[in-house]
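dumping this here so i dont lose it
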């Protein structure tokens, strides 16, 4: 899983616990200080399956390598929305899920422009599949 715009790891840390030793969580943020907080929190909790990534939009992961990309309240802050969503599509496995929680819910499908299919919408939460 990739927590895109992870902030201080409020989702990365619980996801890492759920994924266990066999799972891998990538925590991406454009602010180094946020990633330092994630690393400190993970270490304190004894979590070893989180890898932090400093980036605004590019993810240095192989094509088709993840099952889930999670974006919580971050899409509205991204300048190149289409580029970031294309990058999410690139790294997701076929059938993988892009989960977006954001006030831009009505615009997300416009930004994806056919990259994903809407599977579920509940308020500001959208589940899109590749």
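and the seq i came up w/
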């Amino acid at each position: 899983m990739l927590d895109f715009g992870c902030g201080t790891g409020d989702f990365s840390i619980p996801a890492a616990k759920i994924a266990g030793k066999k799972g891998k969580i990538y925590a991406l943020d454009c602010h180094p200080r946020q990633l330092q907080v994630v690393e400190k929190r993970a270490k304190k909790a004894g979590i070893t399956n989180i890898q932090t990534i400093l980036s605004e939009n590019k993810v240095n992961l192989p094509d088709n390598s993840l099952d889930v990309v999670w974006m919580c309240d971050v899409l509205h802050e991204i300048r190149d929305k289409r580029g970031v969503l294309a990058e999410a599509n690139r790294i997701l496995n076929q059938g993988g899920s892009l989960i977006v929680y954001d006030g831009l819910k009505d615009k997300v499908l416009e930004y994806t422009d056919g990259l994903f299919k809407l599977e579920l919408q509940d308020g500001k939460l959208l589940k899109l599949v590749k």
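Residues 32-45 form the longest helix (14 residues).
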